[in-house]
Amino acid sequence: MFASIEQTIAQLREQQYLCDRKLATVAFLALQMQKPILIEGPAGVGKTELAKVVAAALGRSLIRLQCYGGLDEARALYEWEYGKQLLYTQILRDKIGRLFEGTEDLHAAVEQLHLHEDVFFSEHFVVRRPILQAIDSPTPVVLLIDELDRAEEQFEAFLLEVLSDFQVTVPELGTVKAKTIPYVIITSNNTRDLSDALKRRCLHLFIGYPDEQRELEIVRMKVPALQETLAAQVVAVIRRLRALDLRKAPSISETLDWAQALVLLNAETLTPALLEETLHLLIKYERDAQQVNDQLTWIAEPLQSREAPATAPVAELPLRPPPKPVETDASALEQRRQEHSAQYFTSYRGRTDGRAS
Questions:
Q1: Terminus-to-terminus CA distance in the chain, angstroms?
Q2: Hey, where are the domains in the chain?
Q3: Is 95 exposed, middle or buried (0-12, 13-18, 19+ CB in 10 A)?
Q4: Can you say how many angstroms the Cα of residue 134 is from the centroid of all Cα atoms in its chain?
Q5: Would residue 343 be called left, alpha or beta, if left means φ above 0 and alpha means ψ between -120 and 50 degrees?
Q6: Residues 152, 146: contact at Cβ < 8 Å?
């Protein structure tokens, strides 16, 4: 139970999740106001992890719905277990046959069947998907709707009923209202804009990359075996990589993977050679790899001061890569010289061959 903002920070820290006061305020208010949280930000900054640690801190079960292209209401809410329905009809076919004894025509048989059709469309044959599981749970749960921006806008519209009234409508069963209000966390990687109607129903939170000091604390907490100086070098290099115009900048989760890899390699300090050998843990696209190789000297500058204390402020380091030297194109220079000569001599009305007119 989050009794206060300070207690929220402390409980999340117990689960090894470092957060600032802004994030803790939203997490606290979401519980007190019983409103969903919409968390936006780049991939790998701790959005999904927040749902996991909130569930652990509150002592609740975590129900996760992973969104993807083509996700529809049936996959998110419920499905009928057709195989089980067919099995029951085969087992009970003798009894079903006796229902039609004495019926005079087809219309009478249909009417007789209509009286018992709800037997096969009851809760016994419903496969509950994540949203219905959360709504119908007798105990409070944490519902994570992960990467909603990957789903289509139609599915986003379907969520409005769930988020506003915490109820869903199943045509065969009617309206199912929440027995307990779930703690709902929705994440988005900003691959598309979400609707205003959805945002109105949620508390909004943006999680970006942490500053150097907080990221250093995260590395120390998650990878305690990493040496202090090496941890500072890791953070310094990561910040320089993020300063480049990469298609995919290294996330916090990739920083932790890299730090863990350095521990497994028994590294005591980060050298330019070791940096180059392990860059594939951070850079995932060939275009980005080429750009990093061009700026490798600048990226490796923090590694030159090996004896710097682990608490040295990384922000003092310049975070702008040096501009690339302009390569002189001989053909382009020759073309411009010819254009200039043509302009000059064309604009002169006299002769240019040295003879008098």
A1: 100
A2: 5-77+129-206, 84-125, 212-316
A3: exposed
A4: 21
A5: alpha
A6: no
Fold topology of 5-77+129-206? Rossmann fold (3.40.50)
SS3 of 356, please?
coil
Q: How distant, in Å, are the alpha carbons of 68, 79, 264 from that of 235?
A: 33, 47, 18
Compute φ and ψ for 35, nearest 5 degrees: -120, 150
Per DSSP bridges, beta strands 126-128 and 78-80 are antiparallel
- The CA distances from residue 260 to 48, 55, 251, 355, in Å, are 20, 26, 14, 81
Using an 8 Å Cβ cutoff, are 162 and 151 in contact? no
Q: Which two tokens stand for residue 18?
A: 């470092």
Angle between helices 212-222 and 228-243 (to 10 degrees): 130
Length of the chain: 357
The one-digit pLDDT tens for each residue of the chain (357 residues) are 889 999 999 999 999 999 999 999 999 999 999 999 999 999 999 999 999 999 999 999 999 999 999 898 888 888 777 676 677 677 767 666 666 666 666 666 666 666 656 665 666 667 789 999 999 899 999 999 999 999 998 899 888 888 888 888 777 777 888 889 999 999 999 999 999 999 999 999 999 999 999 999 999 999 999 999 999 999 999 999 999 999 999 999 999 999 999 999 999 899 999 999 999 999 999 999 999 999 999 998 888 754 444 444 444 445 777 776 555 455 666 776 676 666 655 554 444 444 444
For residue 19, which phi and psi values (nearest 5 degrees)? Answer: -140, 160
| Residue for token pair 């350095």 | 262
Q: And the tokens for 77?
A: 């809410």
**232 in helix, strand or coil?**
helix
Written as six digits, the tokens of 313 are: 């402020």
CA distance 275 to 296: 9
CA angle 146, 43, 234 (to 5 degrees): 140
* Dist. CA 24–CA 4, nearest whole Å: 9
